[in-house]
């Protein structure tokens, strides 16, 4: 009896829906032929032009998505001609990847400056501790970090090879970067205490470990390499170093590929 009752109610509802258009003076909706299109990833300019056009003096008003990246490159003294050279893969940092500000308080709540804060130190240069835990403060400007650390950080984000969706794999693909091997981050920030491993952790995952006691932290990948892989998900985004999922990938500049991160990129593979 229950099944019959549900069928009757369903029939009545269908009848109401079918006639509702005419009941309320509306025409029955006609079929629409959908024609899908594929967005063209080609921007027809170099990576350098793309950065500048959306940097501190944008072509389109208020389109300053790479403003803080450009300011960081200037602080580090990196020649933007590096973004003109061909056959490279560029990881761009949106403003949010560097610093996210609370709209009401102005406090920085996410991004590199939040995730890699400045270490507070005693007059003798030792780490200031609070119940055994290092005391830190959120960075508020690029100059809170050493020029060398910022320079090496941005050099790491330029890969010597062209990787886009057409060549990305589910497994990690390693590329050499402009950073080169053997570089270490300064101890002015948490990055300098980040432990870098020489091989992939189990499960192709990443756990961040900081060593404030024995000095084993390096911060930067000791081979100067970066990993990219494609995630097996509904829209197949790219991921850097098995940790940072890129916000926008596969932008085709005239001299290589551009991928944009909206969160902190950690400069080591393992």
Mean pLDDT: 88
Biggest sheet strand line-up: 8-1-14-13
Spatial separation of the terminal alpha carbons = 63 Å
Indicate the CATH topology.
Answer: FAS1 domain
Poorly predicted tracts of residues: 1-26
List SSEs in N-to-C order: HHHEHEEHEEEEHEEEEEEE
SS summary, helix count: 6
Main sheet makeup: 4 strands, mixed
Query: CATH class, anyone?
Result: Mainly Beta
Keywords: Membrane, Transmembrane, Transmembrane helix
Transmembrane segments: 7-26
Keywords:
single chain, 270 residues, alpha+beta, FAS1 domain, 4-stranded mixed sheet, 4-stranded antiparallel sheet, 18% strand
Map the helices and strands:
Layout: H1 2-23, H2 47-53, H3 67-76, E1 88-93, H4 95-98, E2 100-101, E3 108-110, H5 112-115, E4 118-119, E5 129-130, E6 133-134, E7 136-137, H6 147-156, E8 158-159, E9 173-176, E10 225-230, E11 238-240, E12 244-245, E13 248-253, E14 256-261
Parallel strand pairs: 1-14
Antiparallel strand pairs: 1-8, 2-3, 4-7, 5-6, 9-10, 10-11, 11-12, 13-14
Structural notes for this entry:
The chain has 270 residues and is α+β, with helices and mostly antiparallel strands. The chain has one domain (41-261): Roll (FAS1 domain), CATH 2.30.180. The chain is 21% helix and 18% strand. It has a four-stranded mixed sheet. It has a four-stranded antiparallel sheet with strand order 9-10-11-12, with no helix packed on it. The longest helix is centred in the first third of the chain and has 22 residues, at 2-23. The termini are far apart. The model is unreliable at 1-26 (pLDDT under 50).
